[in-house]
Write a structure and sequence with these properties.
The complex is a heterodimer of chains A (about 425) and B (about 375).
Chain A lengths: L1 H24 L15 E6 L5 H11 L2 E6 L3 H13 L8 E5 L3 H4 L18 H6 L1 E2 L2 E2 L2 E2 L1 E2 L2 E6 H6 L6 H7 L7 H14 L3 E3 L2 H10 L20 H15 L13 H6 L3 E7 L2 H8 L6 E4 L12 E4 L7 H11 L2 H11 L2 E2 L2 H5 L1 H4 L11 H12 L12 H16 L5 H15 L4
Helix pairs in contact in A: 9-10, 9-18, 10-18, 18-19
Chain B lengths: L1 H51 L1 E4 L3 E5 L3 H8 L1 H32 L6 H13 L2 H12 L5 H7 L9 H4 L1 H29 L3 H9 L4 H12 L1 H16 L3 H5 L20 H10 L6 H36 L4 H25 L2 H23 L1
Antiparallel strand pairs in B: 1-2
Helix pairs in contact in B: 1-14, 2-14, 3-8, 3-11, 3-13, 4-8, 5-8, 8-11, 11-14, 13-14, 15-16
Classes of the chains: A alpha/beta (about 425), B mainly alpha (about 375).
Chain lengths: ~425, ~375
Amino acid sequence: MRIDRKARTIAALAATTALVATACSGGQGGSGGGDGGKPDVLTVAAWMDFPQELLDRFEEEHGIKVEINSFPDGASAQTVLRNGLASNGAGLSDVHLIELDWWTEMMAVPEDWATLPAVEDRWVDWKVTQGSVDGEIKGYGTDIGPLALAYDSTLMEEAGLPSDPEGFAELVGGQDATWETFLEAGRQFTARSDAAWIDSNATAMQAAINQLPAAFEDPQSGDTLPLADNAAVHELFDTFAQAAQEGVSAGVGIGHADWGAGFQARRWATVITPAWATGIIAENAAGLEGWRIADVFPNGGGNWGGSFFSVPATGPNVEWATTLADFLTTPEAAVEMFLLNGQFPSQTTAMEDPAVSETPHEFFGGQQVGEIYGGLAAAAGDAAAGGFRGVNFAGIQTLVMDGLRRVESGNQDASTAWDSTVAEFDALGLTD
Amino acid sequence: MASPTAAPRRIGFTRRLSRWDVKVSPYLYISPFFISFAIFGVFPIAFNVVVALHDWHRRLGQGDFVGLDNFRWVLRQPAFWTSLENTFSIFLLSIVPQLVLSLLIAAILDQNLRTKTFWRMSVLVPFVVMPVATAMIFSQIFGQFGLVTPLIHELGWFSDVDSPFFQNRFLSHVAIATMINFRWIGYNALIFLAAMQAVPRELYEAATIDGGGRLRQFFSVTIPSIRPTMIFVILTMTIGGLQVFDEARMFDGAGTGGTGQGGSSNQWLTTVLYLFNLGFGDWQDRMGQASAVAWLFALVIVAFTLLNFVLTRSISSSRSKAKKVPASVTRRLVAEARAAGEASARAAREAGVPTLLGVTSTTGDDATQTVKEGSKR
């Protein structure tokens, strides 16, 4: 009798718990449905503006409305994507924009992403290679980031240095420009001006690291190289740290809270400018006259960033999402994106489109920015694909950049900063 | 024959039902809390142990069992120790001004002010503002081209660095502590105010009669009376203050493009921010280490909270001890009161006023009795 009552009590409790548990999980049913059938709406997660006509055209052609889940910047889109992938695709959009800088991270499990059908002759070859994992295409390229230098011709003129784009290009070394000649020009400039030469040497060094074939990891094995023995990175670090100690850099890089204010206060004369940064600079330096793009870049140019549209494999509308990713990366779409945001196309026919090469840029004094970047992209060639990026690339890069920032801020001298960076790296135990 | 057997059974069932009602229902009524606590409280804590003992990747999930390796790894990181220092520095810079100012504001609000509600609501306004928004506004104020920096450069301080509030470690702590203070002072002031309102007004009246000034009343009546509230506030402040995250993460403009990782030399890297960087930052395989940080830091918080609890208790109880009247004083007061009573009684008797005689002597007796009781206590 007693046991019986206890058992019933337990049963009653268990039943209630089950009831509560089912009530809690009741909400999950809705999201999975609708596969195969045509959805009413497709969502795109991105952090740039889209031309409305482009989205309207997709709706006309396919009868599906396109909604943009807009993020203020790449980093917040990255966070949402990280969390979504870690929780079986919860909260993800149908199509995601992925930036090259965190491409490796998102492709840790390639099965997370739908394999996209090949589109012949749309992109430059290296862009397709970057967007593929083990030979399968996982992302359709949007833009690339050919590197150029933007500079303030007013500050150059005040310092008595060449202020026209050709003269400026010659000053930093012309065709044979290296980081040394670039920084040497900076020393000349800072000797004659109160302003710094460049917004941030850390940004410049990041561009330089992008030019290395194997910056931190071995391309064959994927193993991390010991930082203490990494001569190439050490040399770059010393070069930039030395220059930073001499006041060449303002130490306020893109993304820093003071970056926009620094433009307005005319605190620096040059900025490392991948094509996609032209719009960002125009926004931050709004109202200032005299910024120009120079057709020059140290070490023969390169590429920084650029993005891909990818389709999460867990989504309910993979097929339609693939169609949309295809649609958004056609050369026509790329041209419209360029005209709206200044993102330089990765599509070969779009690069040659007169709308890209001949449109004058209002902020940069009517320069035909598209033509300059086209020339720089062609000059960089396949080297623009950049070096090997393994799983630890982003983390080590942050560590090294922080070391350089300590020099820029005057907290440490070059050799102390390098030593402490190496000590931090060793503490991580990546090479044990 | 059938009905008598059926009838007791039915009664038995109802009785059993009501017995269940008595025994089971209370548990059911309180179960929602325990169930949600189990899901959102106990499970994550327990799961954290599992993660901390494994090589855990954000996307790939569980890896190999590594025992205490993650803990050893964390203790080896210079950044972890830096983050602990930063956390305590920011904590001290925020808890002290917070306590002083919120007590002060509460004491002012406790006075008979005109438009009381308006003032009380006003102090809560900063609390309504999202901490992230606060951080973004303050980082502009403390930025290189913000309100404060040009000012202190003008005064010739920190002129060797462009952006002292970002580049100087201590000043970055001051800036972050300012945001925390801005947010929490009003909130704590209202909690203190609620406690102050519950202090019996007679105590103040008595203190006034005894000649205690406002200041004396504040320290000898108000503070000891709101002691339990102060312990509560200090403990929540300790726990919350050690878990600084939003302000530190947003300080250099994360989300608007800044790295949000605590500065290039980890100037304002707090422990929770370090945990976040490990688990959700640029590193892919640091979930296990992040969990280890969480555990280590939880231990630190528990230890520190206990220490604070003991300190707070002993400080406020030692004050109430000091207030105790020494026995010699009591004896003297009793003797004086008696003498005064007798004197007035004698005077009254001599004056020939019989009615007053009784009154004076009783009041005199009452006084002695109260004093005696007081000394006994």
